[in-house]
Amino acid sequence: MDIINRKYRDLEFYIDEFKQAKPFPHIILDNFLDESFFQNLVVENINLNKKEGSSFNTDIETNKWTSKNVELSENISRIVDTLYTSKFIGELAKLSGIKDLFSTNSGNTALANYHEMYESGFLGTHVDHSSEPDTGLPHVLNIILYLTKNWNVSWGGSTVLANKNGRQIEKTIDFIPNRAVIFLHTPFTFHGVSKIKNNLLKRSTIYVDYYSKNKNPYSHLSLNFKNVWFKHPTTFILPNFKDYFLKKNREYLKKMFKHKIKSILY
């Protein structure tokens, strides 16, 4: 954990701030990486083989590319590896109060840890996959780390946090270089990325998700929605309800309907 800012090496000091944050538990950690390490990090000029990842261009997921952890630079890999260490996961467990926290293996090719978005990029509000790919255990926590150094807030690309049905944005977290956002992941923690505009740089981030062996992982938390977990795919909220009935969006309709039924039953 030597590349993490010293003041964030013990997250116990931030427990109350995390749990009391709205619309759901989260925390914003500025200058997350050691300053000298971050200043020497080259991000803007990364030129990855786009075949070694996935591109997205739909009505609600535009101008986005994610790596499958292939051909990452040495320092990007070092950051990812640090976020996978048992020491850091132990700090996240203290912060969130979630027991039996774990991650997938560092360097996995099933989940993307490095993301890029480009001009006009946009990510609609959604909840991510609910389960660890191999075990099916609950997905409970996310971290996003903003990498692009010379980003201007006016360009957008902020992380947005929404209410429990994903239709109302309740908090906007500006893209500030070297800022980390850690947030609870449940079936009701909808989030997204505001539209990028007027920029010449790509929006580069590191994303890691974490899981729990406990199938009732949120019981200790007081939330503004049901503190239950259930299985669901990544589920997007379309801006206009009628858009679900367009032929190209039928898959979104199926996933939204399944999510809605389970949210009522559980």
Any overview of this molecule?
The protein has 266 residues and is α+β, with helices and mostly antiparallel strands. It has a single domain (6-265), classed as Jelly Rolls. Helix content is 18%, strand content 26%. The protein has 5 helices and 12 strands. It has helices spanning 15-20, 35-39, 74-83, 86-96, 250-265, and strands spanning 26-29, 53-56, 61-67, 101-102, 114-127, 139-146, 159-162, 169-173, 180-184, 191-193, 203-212, 235-236. Strands 1, 2, 3, 4, 5, 6, 7, 8, 9, 10, 11 and 12 form a 12-stranded antiparallel β-sheet that branches. 38% of the residues are buried.
Brief sketch in words of this structure:
Helices cover 18% and strands 26% of the residues.
Q: Low-confidence runs (pLDDT<50, min 5 residues)? A: none
CATH overall fold name: Jelly Rolls
Order of helices and strands: HEHEEHHEEEEEEEEEH
What Rg is obtained from the alpha carbons, in whole angstroms?
Answer: 18 Å
The main sheet comes to: 12 strands, antiparallel
The CATH superfamily bears the name q2cbj1_9rhob like domain
User: What is the strand content?
Assistant: 25-35%
The SS-based structural class is alpha+beta
Separation, N- and C-terminal Cα atoms: 39 Å
Indicate the CATH class: Mainly Beta
Helix segment tally: 5
Taken together, the total number of domains comes to: 1
β-strand number: 12
Mean pLDDT: 92
Can you name the CATH architecture? Sandwich
What is the molecular shape? globular
**Level of helix content?**
10-25%
